[in-house]
């Protein structure tokens, strides 16, 4: 019963949500909307567990003086500061001009932007490795990438301006993006969509039950 | 002191007067000092400022395939729109529960628009509508009122029957192969190098005496890739338990975090080593994208895991994680169905599960015939879709559109 009941609940709700995709009537759509709202309430409780875990793991690391433990102090202090300031601000803590918003926008956002900015350098290093021509396939990849990159900037048309319009780099890159690239992308998407359905069906039917944990 | 206050007041009064003068409409500003206007000026002004002719022919239809929450409205433009452009600036749609009002404004659309969907109605309630033309000369309500207008709920979305047929077929295929697998006929599944590499990576981490880092994506549990990432986690945790290698699982959202804890516990339990489970191995980090990245890259650089496994939904952080991991020299296995992130993983990781391979991983790793049967069902469905695509292309080339129309869903 410990495993059967959750499986039954999963199956019933799973099939009901599938039904709501086809039946717009309020007899189905209203309970379906309600179930989705319920998920938000469950998530709220999840944050308490998550916060407690973050504190436990980091206090433990500080206590045991694990490598990088001073950073954990910064993390714990920041976490508590945001929670306390948010609690003091009350209901409208995310509003304009609150201390919570100030801390988020002036402290967190610049750090987040800094992390994002690193992506430019990582793209350069990854591209350097990706376009090393060692095999025929790698050569084709590098050639296609070169055409697409140059064809998408004005210099592409400037270089090939004397050629007929269909042979210019901008036209060739457009063909590469619209045909081979799009075909491959759609093939992956169709396969992934079927994988989604397959996984959903396995969970709903109780074939995939590892998420319930415990012994079989 | 009193004198300086008076000066300040005089300055403010002058500034206010200048402001009013500047804000006054040009027509008023020009006419004001001119005394009584001539007859010609008066006629021109009255023609510009005349109220627009009303819109007419308001018709309605219930929006099909919905829960009775919207109606479509169409009307004929005010004749003034064509006769003197600019005389109508917008149409205001008004609604009332009785034909005589009181009217409340539902929406407004610019001149030239001849239809609107009112998505704010209550189902099975009678409403009355009118359209009012608004222009520089004023507002003119339509001469007639349309109603009663009632939005009704529908029992089936008939644009989705093709999807229903496909789902029924797919379910039938999967059930058939699962039934076959249960009756002892184990389906063949090709080797998937990326999944085989997971055990290899964990083995290498064990040899080096370093932990394994498992990242189940950056989205919440409502994303099926996260679900799949967590299902795979159980098999990975079972392997790490068997090899006695520590595992670290940083999670972005609280619900996946609690499930990840259960998965890792379950993996250790099924490997027969429940006492080896470390409660600190699964960590809640942050749903903020780059805070999550900072935490994981920190783990990579400080703890130096020998194997990084990324399974789930990733966005801009994919390359940040994979490149940092590459720099540490760890063996990296990634899997995602986010098409735009695949190239980054292919470049920076040793093995990548592409799209559907991610969804096949749990069945492949567990080796359970029932789960593998599901993969065969999906394969059969793919063959059917390929056939339909080929037939659809041929029919479209021949100018026959019925198949494309039949497949269209909203």
Give the helix tally of chain B: 14
The span between the termini of chain A is 12 Å
Helix content of chain B: 40-55%
Using DSSP, what is the number of strands of chain B?
A: 14
Write up this protein.
The complex is a heterodimer of chains A (216) and B (410). With 216 residues, chain A is mainly α. Chain A is extended, with a radius of gyration of 27 Å. Chain A is built from 7 helices and no strands. In chain A, helix 2 crosses helix 3 and helix 5 (136-151) crosses helix 7. Chain B is α/β, with parallel strands linked by helices and 410 residues long. Chain B contains 14 helices and 14 strands. In chain B, strands 11-10-9-12-13-14 form a 6-stranded parallel beta sheet, sandwiched between helices. In chain B, strands 3, 4, 6, 7 and 8 form a 5-stranded antiparallel beta sheet that branches. A 3-stranded antiparallel beta sheet of chain B has the order 1-2-5, with no helix packed on it. In chain B, strand 10, helix 8 and strand 11 form a beta-alpha-beta unit. In chain B, helix 6 (193-208) crosses helix 7 (224-243) and helix 12 (356-366) packs antiparallel against helix 13. The N and C termini of chain B lie far apart (74 Å). Classes of the chains: A mainly alpha (216), B alpha/beta (410). The interface between A and B is large, with 64 and 84 residues.
Short description:
Chain A is an all-alpha fold and 216 residues long. In chain A, 78% of the residues lie in helices and 0% in strands.
List the topology elements.
The complex is a heterodimer of chains A (216) and B (410).
Chain A: H1 4-22, H2 26-63, H3 69-89, H4 99-130, H5 136-151, H6 154-159, H7 169-204
Chain B: H1 2-23, H2 26-31, H3 39-48, E1 56-62, E2 71-76, H4 79-83, E3 90-96, E4 104-110, E5 115-118, E6 127-135, E7 138-141, E8 146-149, H5 161-182, H6 193-208, E9 212-215, H7 224-243, E10 247-251, H8 254-270, E11 282-284, H9 289-303, E12 307-311, H10 317-328, E13 331-336, H11 342-348, E14 351-354, H12 356-366, H13 369-397, H14 402-407
Parallel strand pairs in B: 9-10, 9-12, 10-11, 12-13, 13-14
Antiparallel strand pairs in B: 1-2, 2-5, 3-4, 3-6, 6-7, 6-8
């Amino acid at each position: 019963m410990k495993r059967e009941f959750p499986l039954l609940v999963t199956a019933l709700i799973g099939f009901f949500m599938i039904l709501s995709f086809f039946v717009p009537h309020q007899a189905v759509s209203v309970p379906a909307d309600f179930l989705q709202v319920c998920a938000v309430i469950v998530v709220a409780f999840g944050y308490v567990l998550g916060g407690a875990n973050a504190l436990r793991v980091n206090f433990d690391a500080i206590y045991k003086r694990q490598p990088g433990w001073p950073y954990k102090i910064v993390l714990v202090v920041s976490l508590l500061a945001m929670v306390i300031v948010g609690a003091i601000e009350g209901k409208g803590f995310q509003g304009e001009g609150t201390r919570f918003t100030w801390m988020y926008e002036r402290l967190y956002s610049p750090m987040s932007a800094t992390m994002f900015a690193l992506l430019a350098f990582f793209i350069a290093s990854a591209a350097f490795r990706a376009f090393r021509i060692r095999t025929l396939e790698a050569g084709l990849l590098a050639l296609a990438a070169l055409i697409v990159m140059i064809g998408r900037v004005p210099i592409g048309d400037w270089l090939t301006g004397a050629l007929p319009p269909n042979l210019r780099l901008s036209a060739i890159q457009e063909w590469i993006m619209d045909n081979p690239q799009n075909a491959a992308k759609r093939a992956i998407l169709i396969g992934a969509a079927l994988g989604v359905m397959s996984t959903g069906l396995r969970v709903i039917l109780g074939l995939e039950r590892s998420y319930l944990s415990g012994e079989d | 002191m009193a004198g300086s206050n008076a000066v300040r007041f005089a300055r403010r009064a002058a500034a206010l007067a200048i402001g009013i003068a500047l804000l006054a409409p040009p027509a008023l500003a020009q006419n004001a000092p001119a005394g009584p206007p001539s007859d010609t000026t008066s006629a021109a002004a009255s023609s510009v400022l005349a109220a627009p002719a009303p819109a007419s022919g308001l018709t309605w239809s219930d929006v099909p395939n919905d829960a009775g929450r919207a109606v479509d409205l169409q009307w004929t433009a005010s004749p003034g729109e064509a006769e003197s452009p600019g005389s109508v600036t917008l149409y205001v749609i008004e609604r009332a529960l009785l034909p005589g009002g009181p009217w409340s404004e539902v929406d407004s659309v610019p001149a030239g628009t001849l239809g609107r969907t009112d998505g704010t109605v209550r189902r099975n309630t009678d409403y009355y509508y009118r359209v009012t033309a608004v222009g520089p000369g004023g507002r003119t309500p339509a001469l007639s009122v349309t109603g009663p207008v009632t939005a009704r709920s529908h029992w089936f979305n008939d644009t989705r029957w093709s999807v229903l047929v496909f789902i029924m077929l797919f379910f039938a295929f999967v059930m058939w192969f699962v039934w076959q697998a249960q009756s002892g006929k184990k389906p063949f599944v090709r080797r998937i190098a990326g999944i085989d590499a997971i055990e290899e990576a964990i083995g290498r981490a064990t040899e080096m005496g370093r932990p394994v880092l498992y990242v189940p994506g950056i989205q919440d549990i409502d994303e099926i890739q996260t679900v799949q990432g967590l299902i795979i986690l159980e098999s990975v945790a079972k392997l790490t338990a068997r090899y006695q290698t520590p595992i670290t699982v940083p999670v972005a959202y609280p619900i996946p975090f609690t499930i990840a804890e259960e998965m890792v516990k379950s993996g250790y339990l099924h490997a027969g080593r429940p006492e080896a489970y470390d409660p600190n191995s699964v960590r809640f980090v942050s749903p903020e994208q780059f805070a999550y990245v900072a935490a994981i890259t920190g783990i990579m650089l400080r703890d130096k895991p020998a194997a990084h496994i990324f399974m789930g939904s990733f966005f801009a952080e994919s390359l940040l994680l994979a490149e940092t991991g590459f720099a540490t020299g760890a063996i990296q296995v990634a899997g995602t169905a986010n098409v735009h992130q695949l190239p980054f993983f292919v470049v920076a990781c040793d093995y990548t599960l592409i799209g559907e391979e991610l969804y096949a991983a749990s069945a492949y790793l567990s080796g359970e015939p029932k789960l593998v049967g599901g993969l065969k069902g999906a394969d059969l469905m793919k063959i059917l879709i390929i056939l339909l695509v080929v037939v659809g292309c041929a029919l479209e080339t021949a100018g026959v559109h019925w198949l494309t129309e039949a497949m269209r869903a909203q």
